[in-house]
């Protein structure tokens, strides 16, 4: 505080004081002070939380702490999300599936299954969250039309924007898939379809949660692994359609032109639309 007393600057409020501190000392000094002192680190954490959810506060704009002080990234929120997804799956296996093992759940025939809709909803929720957490790190920016929208001072960041887009995408595709089966007068296969989709997305969500742990906690090069993620998603897309085509329950319509119509209009085209929405 000595340099503040010796300074000839006139300070009108607290923001002026902090702005002077930041302009007086370079990044390395601030980084050193935050590492060796408890109060500056605690102060930085508080301001980081505020600035994340209320970016319009004048004091935060004056401080510009996020871009000035270099603090190692804290990924505790990832653990909380994974724990929440794990608890949802435990509830589904223990309560909804009557203490079935994962192997029994995956090999369970349609006639012996129970709570199919609830299980489908839980698996879809976990899958969308897991996919959003993994993909959000590669989103270049949040569109300005979305970033400008505020609710009680809150704004969507990259992960919030990704979750919103993914949830709307899968909810819309689910509605269109239901209408597709109703329009071709083959509604009896709709329960078989979401029953098979539940098993498939359950396995994929487990793979995504494993990738999230590797991605956030093993220090991998994000730019180098991105092409492998794209290749993996393409393989999953291809395997999913093969899984539906050759499923023992015959979840696709019997006519081949309906199969092609569904794959093109409700699988391939919506995926391209989601890609354009997130990355362009």
From TrEMBL:
A Pfam family recorded for this sequence: DUF4271
Record-annotated membrane-spanning stretches: 77-96, 117-139, 159-181, 193-219, 225-244, 256-278
Keywords from the UniProt entry: Membrane, Transmembrane, Transmembrane helix
Record has Transmembrane as a keyword: yes
InterPro entries: DUF4271
Protein name: DUF4271 domain-containing protein
Phylogenetic placement of the source organism: Bacteria, Pseudomonadati, Bacteroidota, Flavobacteriia, Flavobacteriales
